[in-house]
Amino acid sequence: MLEFIKDLLNPQCKDILFLDAAGDKIFRIHPLAISIKPWLGRHHVYGIFPIPIEHHIQYPVLISVVGAGSYRKEACMVNEQVQGYIPPTGYHLLQVNLKTRVTLLMMLRGLSCLLKESRNWTLSYTILHS
């Protein structure tokens, strides 16, 4: 019963095979920057990921954070208009949010140090073929 309640409050993606559905290569990247300000409310915990300009992402994508889990994100959950960050040459930026309640639970468990390390965040995606 406890596991059911945990899954209800924090539904994670348990099957990442949706990324490999077309037999495409799965790309994995770490963020350029991270913002962790859950006290400001929803959508204030996110990673800014540099995506090569030639990569046209096929949604959904998978965001994984050590200690937090893995979450499937649809296109409507990803922001391609990132304010205040300048992409490296040849890249565009993608903002992917982590649920605020997940962040707060990690902080309560003393795991906020895991959130602050960009190597602990991974975005996995496939690309559209032209």
Approximately how much helix is present in the residues? 10-25%
Strand content: 25-35%
Bulk shape? globular
**Number of structural units classed as domains:** 1
Tally of strands: 8
What's the number of helices?
A: 3
Show unreliable segments: 1-10
> Distance between termini?
47 Å
Q: Could you report the average pLDDT, rounded to the nearest whole number? A: 81
Task: Characterize the main sheet.
Answer: 4 strands, antiparallel
As laid out across the biggest beta sheet, the strand order is 1-8-4-5
- C-alpha Rg, in Å? 15 Å
The secondary-structure class comes to alpha+beta
Order of helices and strands: HEEEEEEEHHE
Report on the structure:
- The chain has 130 residues and is of the alpha+beta class.
- The chain has one domain.
- It has three helices and eight strands.
- It has helices at residues 2-9, 100-108, 112-115; strands at 27-29, 33-36, 45-52, 57-65, 69-73, 78-79, 91-97, 121-127.
- A hairpin with an 8-residue loop joins strand 2 (33-36) and strand 3 (45-52).
- The radius of gyration is 15 Å and the shape is globular.
- Mean pLDDT is 81; it is low at 1-10.
Summarize the structure.
With 130 residues, the chain is α+β, with helices and mostly antiparallel strands. It has one domain. The protein has three helices and eight strands.
